[in-house]
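hey all, quick one before standup. I had two proteins in the batch that finished overnight and I want to keep them in one place so we stop losing track of which output belongs to which input. First protein below, input sequence then structure tokens straight from the run.
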Amino acid sequence: MGKNNLFLVCLLLIGCSGFSQTLGSQELKGKVYSNDGDVAATHVLNITSQRAAITDIDGFFSITARLNDTIVFSAIQYKRKELVVSLEMLKSKFLMVPLEEALTQLDEVIVMPYNLSGDMTRDAARLEIDPIVTASTLNLPNAYVKPPDQIQRMLLTATDPRSLDFIFNAISGRTKRLKNQGKQEKIYARTERVRSFYKDSLIVHDLKIPQDKIDDFFYYCEIDNGFQKAVVTKDRLKIWDVMRVKSVAYRRNNELD
């Protein structure tokens, strides 16, 4: 075999090796979300490789996948959702997966023991309703204090010097992870509020972002410091200007133009 032929064979082998590595198993990370927010313990199953994972309390997950693998997301309260792993999904840093509630309709409902007629005017006059008792109606001192969310409660426990796990949490890095997770959740919540400012049709028409790419586009904006600074101002025109600039870069990076 001549030197030139040997050189060509080596190039082909290197190219095939790189291509197989590109399409090899990769860790696919993401988050599931829904309108009601209860996404903990959602099952994530790669039915192609028979690998499984489960989301944490906030919907985050991580699972190994290859190109064209089928990933199934399922939970009792949501409709089964299937995604076929594409090359674009493998290249993405993060995958946002919306879940749709599975509504159960009843053929007939009988209300007992109130013997309601269905006439709201007549039924309301006959019913005796006890006064509503809440912290605010009782004028309790902490009635209007917003209760901490689950991450905040876990962080308070982890940083409590009276806790037996206080030193372990600090050494193991659990406290730092909880702080980072809490910060990430605040950023995500702010981004979701920003999205509610603008209709999807406006984003599709003015920013030229396809409907199925809107979630990914907002995540792309979310990790940008300039976008976060604009969000803090609460100025919707300023936020829109930043989104317009980011949309140009997003379409270019994803070859959408």
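OK second protein, same deal, sequence then tokens:
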Amino acid sequence: MQRTLCLSFLLLISWAFLGAAKKPNLICILVDDLGYSDLSSFGGTDIRTPAIDSLMKAGLRLDQFYANCTVCTPTRASLLTGRYPDIVGAPGVIRQRPSDSWGYFKPSGPTLPDMMKKAGYHTGMVGKWHLGFESPNIPNDRGFDFFHGFLADMMDDYWTHLRGGVNWMRHNKDTIKPKGHATEVFTRWAIDYVKKQAADKKKPFFLYLAYNAPHFPIQPPKDWLEKVTAREPQLNKKRATNVAFVEHMDHEIGKFLDAVKDIGIAKDTLIVFTSDNGGSLPHGALNGELRGGKQDHWEGGIRVPTCAVWPGVISPGRSNELGITMDLLPTFCEIAGVEVEHEIDGKSLVPIWLKGAKGDPNRTLIWVRREGNRRYQGRPYYAIRRGDWKLLQNTAFEPMQLVNLAKDPKEAKPTPPNGKIANELTRALMDHLQRAGKIPWQKP
């Protein structure tokens, strides 16, 4: 606690020295199901993503940053609480039909927007929520002063914005019927939000901008698909459609980033870009040399393209230190100068981002996902990493497998979980299960 207060004080002095007259604005851009190599800056050869590439180049690229889960809801719960998802009742996807829902969001303490409000920030969210459909689990009840977005999980269609035939688009708590492609709608709303906050000038703002794209259904505007098809005639229809979808999203993110610059707040703003999980291989995404994809505990399902950009404060470059979605809450809190006094599982990345410090080489990270249907049958499955060692399964019905990521980064030769390392990881996972087993995940 004393170290956090001291470092926050030193940060404030450093920002003053660098010319920052106030606390920085904080923007978290979360995209949905982005493939690890579906950026040209991450090795994609058939895709062009200049806006996100420019972010990666302008800031600190985090090459070992993980999503908290292989799917949507749990990662979002971890982002907002700084906790493992099963510790806050969200080990699986929350859906509008109770028979298909595998979580109930119940924060164990203040949420990230709650903490930002405590630090003097205006808090806004634009885009996909996916943590509940009714009070108290809607954005305005969980710390956001402003919400303009979509409460549900995936959209049935990016132009109709429905899910299961129901309209889940909201302006704060009011139902609305916007027109246009959802990616463009969210960009427009996000630009409107930052313009208003910049003009107000009363307080810094925290914006959580969560795109549905490139989550299926893969629906790029027609002209974007035509452009990709003409440029990359070798691609099959599924891959070309996914490429066009990501490129359209990149273009919209570029419009938002341009607006931040044009408003004149770029130097006073920290922007973090990340994804909620890896790319969905059946829908044309690619995860480069990483094995697997969305739903898997292989690296392709949980390692995500991520960067932190703060001009003049965070030095551009690359970091190979571990990070995970739940680390963003304590990181943002430390930067905002507010102390985290309740229990969390995440760790602040400020020393890594601002000072180039090393992280804990033996840090333990755990993943869980619970899901229904014939493949999962409502049962959870797990992975755990400590140092270079990783123990994992991809359904509850397969045995655990052991991988050394330093020696086998492609996870091509997993072994049975025998020996001292496997025993230690198993014990650490069981300890977590005993802790998480106390937390209900069904709606009371």
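Flagging for whoever picks this up: The longest strand covers residues 364-371. Residues 1-8, 12-21 have pLDDT under 50 and may be disordered.
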